[in-house]
Design brief:
This protein is an alpha/beta fold and 171 residues long. It has helices spanning 30-46, 59-72, 89-97, 114-122, 129-136, and strands spanning 5-12, 52-56, 79-81, 105-110, 143-150, 162-168. This is Phosphohistidine phosphatase.
Length: 171
């Protein structure tokens, strides 16, 4: 699959504890675990079935992915990326551009402000108006933006993906 219909899900990690040994090691709160579970249920309900999960190596993003995948009944092991922890939106976009052509659907779980900027950057403005309005109001913890993209990953550019749904998962 060198080109064709692809799905990109951009997700901000679920609610984390305020403190941890380091910021990188902060765990999800009980609400975060519930919200991650709710996010997985919502994605499964949309029929999202990712070929790849690109997840920041921070504890709260890894735990978010685990809750999402468990609730969605996905057995996909995440690809942990240490760089995604501190990546800016351009770097995150470069990670997507480097995806193998065989990947048809990807879930990216990371941190703000990068995930909010990435979602806004990808949006071509032609998608679902309600989703666009929701995206414009902010990207809180457990926020998800789902995009449809037609083309090769290497050609993914700003304003090249159609926003199809936005959800803030609350368990």
């Amino acid at each position: 699959m060198s080109a064709g219909h692809r799905t990109v899900v951009v997700m901000r990690h679920a609610k984390a504890e305020q403190v941890g040994p380091t910021d990188f090691e902060r765990a999800l709160s009980a609400r975060g675990l519930a919200d991650g579970t709710a996010a997985g249920g919502w994605l499964a309900g949309l029929g999202v079935d990712p070929d790849l999960a690109l997840v920041s190596a921070a504890r709260r993003t890894v735990e978010t992915w685990a809750a999402v995948a468990d609730a969605a009944s996905w057995s996909l092991s995440p690809t942990l990326d240490e760089g995604l922890y501190s990546a800016g939106p351009e770097t995150a976009l470069d990670l997507l551009r480097a995806l193998d052509p065989s990947v048809g659907s990807v879930v990216v779980v990371g941190h703000n402000p990068t995930m909010a900027y990435l979602a806004s950057m990808l949006d071509d403005g032609e998608g679902d108006p309600a989703a666009g309005n929701a995206l414009a109001t902010g990207f809180p913890t457990s926020a998800l933006a789902v995009f449809a993209y037609d083309g090769a990953w290497s050609d993914l550019d700003p304003a090249s993906a159609r926003l199809t749904a936005v959800h803030v998962a609350r368990g």
